[in-house]
Specification:
- This protein is α/β, with parallel strands linked by helices.
- The protein contains 11 helices and 13 strands.
- The chain is 35% helix and 19% strand.
- The protein starts with 10 loop residues before the first strand and ends in a 9-residue tail after the last strand.
- The C terminus is likely disordered.
């Protein structure tokens, strides 16, 4: 598993294994307060996960009936998957807060039809993804539905600057779009702990996932990596002692981690520019060039990452879409660096 989190009377980590998703290491849930408590995220509905949460809650002196509210850092299934079951186990309604730009992700309609839709298929064609990769992606999308229950009618919208408090804590919502449009961090002012969801993670660079369903957002012009980089600047202005993320180890050097993230994104942009210099390239070819050994299960994340970086390069005037396709073709424009970095 992972190292123990710094001890606190009012902050406890519930750490779940994530079998089959080894790159995540763990799924982390946080329990705030001395009773009643606030739950930050709920983990996915993996076999045994609910019982594991119940056991760890009991070890720190609480049960599901002690949960006053649930706050979700964002609307991905590994963060809200067990919320409905936890509410049912408490035997009463529990307010469940998340940003309005991610509420729709937790609806039954989206879980049934949005994981795989005409918009998703159109994006795969634009990217030039091979047919067999698209079919595997479609099957995995159907499989993922098993890991969550919908939250129809339970989601309460929260916004930048909202505060929540309880015995021993006060947290402020920091809207940090990028990994998803509604991603939020939660800053505990007394301990200077940032609950960072998937915005920053110690052992991996979070993927600013390209948003396909932009018509459902408050800003249909949303671009994931541009938003993510702005969110990093927002976090950088906070006085953070530790960041407790949604996966893996806690972070005790947030400035150093943010610096590494920026270096990674700049390096990735240089690599992409190198591969589209004086040549029209579809995203699928760039995946082959940049991620030659990528597992089949992660091809869409690679496509999404490349597209997000292309959006930034286009906004900077350093690249352009030369042909709409499908597949769309991209080419560098203007004067470019000599090295791929």
């Amino acid at each position: 598993m992972i190292s123990a989190f710094p001890p606190s009377d009012a902050i406890h980590a519930v750490v779940l294994p994530v079998p089959g998703f080894g790159n995540l290491l763990t799924s982390n849930i946080y329990v705030l307060g001395t009773g009643p408590v606030t739950l930050i995220d709920t983990g996915p509905k993996f076999p045994g996960a609910f019982e594991n949460i119940e056991k760890q809650l009991h070890e720190i002196g609480f049960g599901f009936q002690d949960i006053e509210r649930i706050i979700l850092t964002h609307g991905h299934i590994d963060h809200f998957g067990l919320a409905r079951k936890i509410i049912e186990a408490a035997g009463r309604s529990i307010p469940c807060h998340l940003h309005r730009d991610d509420i729709w992700r937790t609806s039954g309609e989206y879980i049934r039809y949005g994981f795989w839709s005409d918009e998703v298929l159109e994006f795969t064609r634009m990217a030039g993804m091979p047919r067999d990769a698209v079919e595997r992606m479609k099957r995995r999308s159907a499989f993922y539905k098993n890991f969550c229950d919908p939250l129809d009618g339970e989601g309460i919208p929260m916004d930048e600057g909202d505060t929540f408090s309880g015995p021993g804590f006060e947290i402020r919502v920091v809207h940090t779009p990028g990994h998803s449009p509604g991603s939020c961090c939660l800053y505990e002012t007394g301990s200077r702990v940032l609950f960072s969801g998937d915005h920053i993670i110690k052992h991996i660079t979070p993927n600013p996932i390209m948003e396909i369903h932009r018509s459902l957002l408050s800003d249909p012009g949303y671009q994931s990596l541009i938003s993510y980089e702005a969110s990093l600047e927002k976090v950088e202005r906070l006085d953070i002692r530790y960041a407790f993320s949604g996966h893996g180890e806690y972070i005790d050097d947030v400035p150093g981690l943010l610096s590494r993230y920026r270096e990674h994104h700049e390096s990735r942009k240089r690599q992409i520019l190198h591969h589209i210099l004086d040549i029209d390239q579809p995203i699928s070819h760039l995946v082959e060039d940049l991620f030659p050994d990528i597992p089949e299960s992660e091809i869409f994340l690679a496509v999404s990452e490349i597209y997000a970086h292309l959006e930034v390069l286009i906004s900077e005037g350093r690249a352009r879409m030369s042909t709409e396709g499908p597949p769309a073709l991209f080419r560098a424009s203007g004067v470019q660096p000599a090295s791929a970095g």
